[in-house]
């Protein structure tokens, strides 16, 4: 029997920015009749959306590409595309086609919206297409988007980053900050509500500088208050906040607006003021702790999560102790902990006092212990409470149970009916595990 529709497989590494880009690539492909498959071997088109924030993200891409060689030999019609942040690095696109000559399409983050054009070119001309743009184009609105969830959605409010933290490659691969217009954001959210979505997460590398590039200017707090007015919206979250830009008016907006959830992701990176300066983070340990205190005062039961890097060049035992003491003081609900990874082209890569691997690993383990301790303690506080839970789907490990999240982002598993997916229900928390909660619907 002749196969009538084509299948695509997409794998995404990295942050929500890449996930959202992949949802757009999927949206474009579906519009042209492609169907998504989760089995690589069944695919006529394979896309790898890459990340380069740390070295291990890159190594995964190489491994996965190498493994496709055999599949391409068996099926020469298979089209392989590689895109995303890693392709924006100087010389990377050329290196990829040299190392993996069977790759058909290479493109970057700035021209992802032209993907269908590249796909057609490959099909018509039979030659590979390698196109990466140094500079970002203006924001392209109206691309179709095929979202992973029917319950919660990411809405990007701004692209790029201007902060140039000295360890970080993101500003080089995602370009300068540019904000979407308020009307475009509102319209996207209204459309999502009409489709039944309950939770929106506003995305940007530094959402607190939203609107500075718009005319007329609008602040992030004003945007939040505008969004809160949208009829039918239940929950709004956002990430990421840069501590230097998280202003009191944003804290007040969260405290006062009904839809804004009691959850803040507030990357600290280090607890040492000396290192924060070397990282170009523009705040001190004391300023960060003061900010956390103001947040806790204004927003009862708020959950705070963070990102922390260990082993940044020049990190002494004393610097690391400052990080541990900060983590103990803040009592994070959760944290993404990272071992510093050298990135070519960033100032920190040029710093001479790089830290020994064994020291980095030892510090990493000690930090994780502190974080796990506070995360378990925070979860324990939920025992006996009744929480509003948005049901996202069936539990991963036990399909007879439901899985959802509290307004503070805690994962809750409980017995219930699959037809309730997408609904908000009250759940009594009966038991806290280290990384999730167990409850009963009331
Ligand atoms: N814009 C966000 C997220 C950036 S990337 C922010 O500013 O928080 C996500 C996290 O990766 C960062 O917060 C940082 O903790 C980590 N990261 C970035 N570059 C890194 C590097 N070179 N080595 C290790 N971790 C890094
Ligand atoms: Fe990277 Fe810093 Fe920008 Fe975050 S704020 S993306 S860590 S440069
Ligand atoms: Fe990675 Fe790009 Fe995000 S480098 S962390 S996918 S912005």
UniProtKB/TrEMBL annotation:
<dbReference type="Pfam" id="PF00919">
    <property type="entry name" value="UPF0004"/>
</dbReference>
<feature type="domain" description="Radical SAM core">
    <location>
        <begin position="147"/>
        <end position="377"/>
    </location>
</feature>
<feature type="binding site">
    <location>
        <position position="15"/>
    </location>
    <ligand>
        <name>[4Fe-4S] cluster 1</name>
    </ligand>
</feature>
<dbReference type="InterPro" id="IPR013848">
    <property type="entry name" value="Methylthiotransferase_N"/>
</dbReference>
<keyword id="KW-0408">Iron</keyword>
<keyword id="KW-0411">Iron-sulfur</keyword>
<dbReference type="InterPro" id="IPR002792">
    <property type="entry name" value="TRAM_dom"/>
</dbReference>
<dbReference type="InterPro" id="IPR038135">
    <property type="entry name" value="Methylthiotransferase_N_sf"/>
</dbReference>
<feature type="binding site">
    <location>
        <position position="85"/>
    </location>
    <ligand>
        <name>[4Fe-4S] cluster 1</name>
    </ligand>
</feature>
<dbReference type="InterPro" id="IPR058240">
    <property type="entry name" value="rSAM_sf"/>
</dbReference>
<dbReference type="InterPro" id="IPR005839">
    <property type="entry name" value="Methylthiotransferase"/>
</dbReference>
<feature type="binding site">
    <location>
        <position position="161"/>
    </location>
    <ligand>
        <name>[4Fe-4S] cluster 2</name>
    </ligand>
</feature>
<feature type="binding site">
    <location>
        <position position="51"/>
    </location>
    <ligand>
        <name>[4Fe-4S] cluster 1</name>
    </ligand>
</feature>
<feature type="domain" description="MTTase N-terminal">
    <location>
        <begin position="6"/>
        <end position="124"/>
    </location>
</feature>
<feature type="binding site">
    <location>
        <position position="168"/>
    </location>
    <ligand>
        <name>[4Fe-4S] cluster 2</name>
    </ligand>
</feature>
<dbReference type="Pfam" id="PF04055">
    <property type="entry name" value="Radical_SAM"/>
</dbReference>
<keyword id="KW-0949">S-adenosyl-L-methionine</keyword>
<keyword id="KW-0819">tRNA processing</keyword>
<keyword id="KW-0004">4Fe-4S</keyword>
<keyword id="KW-0479">Metal-binding</keyword>
<protein>
    <recommendedName>
        <fullName>tRNA-2-methylthio-N(6)-dimethylallyladenosine synthase</fullName>
        <ecNumber>2.8.4.3</ecNumber>
    </recommendedName>
</protein>
<dbReference type="GO" id="GO:0035597">
    <property type="term" value="F:tRNA-2-methylthio-N(6)-dimethylallyladenosine(37) synthase activity"/>
</dbReference>
<dbReference type="InterPro" id="IPR006638">
    <property type="entry name" value="Elp3/MiaA/NifB-like_rSAM"/>
</dbReference>
<feature type="binding site">
    <location>
        <position position="165"/>
    </location>
    <ligand>
        <name>[4Fe-4S] cluster 2</name>
    </ligand>
</feature>
<comment type="function">
    <text>Catalyzes the methylthiolation of N6-(dimethylallyl)adenosine (i(6)A), leading to the formation of 2-methylthio-N6-(dimethylallyl)adenosine (ms(2)i(6)A) at position 37 in tRNAs that read codons beginning with uridine.</text>
</comment>
<dbReference type="Pfam" id="PF01938">
    <property type="entry name" value="TRAM"/>
</dbReference>
<comment type="subunit">
    <text>Monomer.</text>
</comment>
<keyword id="KW-0963">Cytoplasm</keyword>
<feature type="domain" description="TRAM">
    <location>
        <begin position="380"/>
        <end position="442"/>
    </location>
</feature>
<dbReference type="InterPro" id="IPR007197">
    <property type="entry name" value="rSAM"/>
</dbReference>
<dbReference type="InterPro" id="IPR023404">
    <property type="entry name" value="rSAM_horseshoe"/>
</dbReference>
<comment type="similarity">
    <text>Belongs to the methylthiotransferase family. MiaB subfamily.</text>
</comment>
<keyword id="KW-0808">Transferase</keyword>
<dbReference type="InterPro" id="IPR006463">
    <property type="entry name" value="MiaB_methiolase"/>
</dbReference>
<dbReference type="InterPro" id="IPR020612">
    <property type="entry name" value="Methylthiotransferase_CS"/>
</dbReference>
């Amino acid at each position: 029997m002749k196969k009538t529709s084509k299948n695509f497989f997409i794998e995404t590494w990295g942050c929500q920015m890449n996930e959202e880009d992949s949802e757009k690539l999927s949206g474009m492909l579906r519009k042209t009749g492609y169907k998504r498959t989760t089995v690589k071997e069944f695919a006529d088109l394979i896309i790898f959306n890459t990340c380069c924030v740390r070295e291990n993200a890159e190594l995964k891409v190489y491994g996965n590409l190498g493994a496709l060689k055999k599949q391409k030999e068996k099926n020469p019609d298979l089209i392989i595309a590689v895109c995303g942040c890693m392709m924006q690095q100087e010389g990377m696109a050329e290196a990829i086609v040299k190392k993996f000559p069977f790759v058909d399409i290479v493109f970057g983050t700035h021209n992802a919206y032209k993907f269908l054009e590249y796909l057609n070119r490959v099909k018509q001309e039979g030659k590979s297409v390698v196109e990466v743009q140094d500079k970002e184009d203006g924001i392209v609105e109206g691309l179709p988007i095929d979202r992973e969830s029917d319950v919660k959605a990411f809405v990007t409010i701004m692209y790029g980053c201007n902060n140039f933290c000295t360890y970080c490659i993101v500003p080089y691969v995602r370009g300068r900050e540019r904000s979407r217009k308020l009307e475009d954001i509102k319209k996207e959210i209204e459309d999502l509500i009409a489709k039944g979505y309950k939770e929106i997460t506003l995305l940007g590398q530094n959402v607190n500088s939203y609107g500075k590039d718009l005319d007329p200017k609008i602040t992030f707090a004003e945007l939040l208050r505008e969004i809160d007015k949208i009829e039918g919206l239940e929950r709004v979250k956002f990430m990421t906040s840069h501590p230097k830009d998280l202003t009191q008016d944003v804290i007040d907006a969260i405290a006062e607006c009904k839809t804004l959830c009691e959850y803040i992701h507030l990357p600290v990176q280090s607890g040492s003021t000396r290192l924060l300066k070397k990282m170009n983070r523009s705040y001190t340990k004391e300023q960060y702790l003061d900010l956390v205190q103001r947040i806790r005062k204004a927003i009862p039961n708020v959950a705070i999560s963070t990102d922390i890097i260990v082993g940044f060049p020049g990190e002494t035992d004393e610097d690391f102790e400052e990080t541990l003491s900060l983590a103990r003081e803040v009592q994070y609900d959760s944290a993404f902990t990272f071992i510093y990874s050298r990135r070519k082209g960033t100032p920190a890569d040029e710093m001479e006092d790089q830290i020994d691997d064994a020291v980095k690993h030892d510090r990493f383990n000690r930090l994780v212990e502190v974080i796990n301790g506070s995360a378990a303690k925070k979860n324990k506080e939920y025992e006996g409470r009744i929480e509003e839970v948005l049901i996202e789907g069936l539990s991963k490990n036990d399909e007879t149970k439901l899985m959802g999240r509290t307004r503070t982002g805690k994962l809750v598993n409980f017995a219930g009916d699959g037809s309730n997916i997408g609904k908000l229900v009250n759940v009594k928390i009966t038991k806290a595990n280290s990384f999730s909660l167990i409850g009963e619907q009331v």
